[in-house]
Amino acid sequence: MDLVSLYYFRELAKDLNMTKTATRLYISQQTLSNHIHRLEQYYDTPLFYRKPNLSLTCAGEFVLAFAQVVEKEEVNLRDILSDIEHQERGALRVGASMARGVQFLPRILPKFYRRYPQVELRFVDSLSQRLEAMLSNGELDFAVVLSDTYRPDLVSHDLCKDPIYLCVPEDLFRKHYSPQEVKEIKARSAQGANIRDFTRLPFALMTNRLGNRMQEYFLREQVSLTAPFTGPSTSQILPLCATGVVACYCSHLSLVASGDMLSGRVNVFPLLDQGQPIVQRLSLLRHRQRYLTHFSKFFMELLLQSAAQLEQEQVIYII
What is the DSSP string of 49-79? Predict the structure, then answer.
């Protein structure tokens, strides 16, 4: 057995498709097959069922768990040796949604690269549930997530509270409500809006974890919204709102990242649920057994500082 064969085995276990894995790794199928055969000879047992479809045997499941442990420990060892030699080089694997990446990385990376110019940052765009699984498997060093579950193998650091706001284009507002109604709703909503006041408007809705939470809120309020557009993130939805096509909801951090996109055209109200602000909690996750290099600690420090600054920025405005 060698680490290269173990690596190829681990990658094939992700896809369970020889052609797909070989193409992704830029190797021939024969090379990949030879590495798997070498492992099966070493352990003297089949690791995959070949028919009807490729799947792990019971032995293969145990070897995969071992391979994941080996990967984590090998990465830890490289980082420890790098710190000992003061090389200040390596790779940092960070996962977040694309929206979170846009919110945080431009604020962090200039300072980070000034101190560690030889460290490569590898960004993975995915949703929170997938990122948590990648951390557990040793595929990531950090993940920025909306986490509401406890996992004993992961360490969670609170980043910030991220309130949710209702964004209502002024022209769209006046199209569906009389001037007097607009005035009254704005007055009621200045310190906190209730979705029931805005049910005549067309909305863009999200299909991510925040979207699921908002659907629960709409059900509690017994509200059914007209939704001509749905999408996975604010990167599609906020531009539509800015053009006056739809109303939407989004987080504080998304509004800060959007800059002046909505300014002067869109009313932004804090959104309430049973009289309390709707807030999501953002966390930084890392694996409990993952060694923290000097540059990993510095990245984490910058991220926590950036989150604290973003949390304090003001975005609320009413036209």
Answer: E-SSS-EE-HHHHHHHHHHHHHHHHHHHHHH
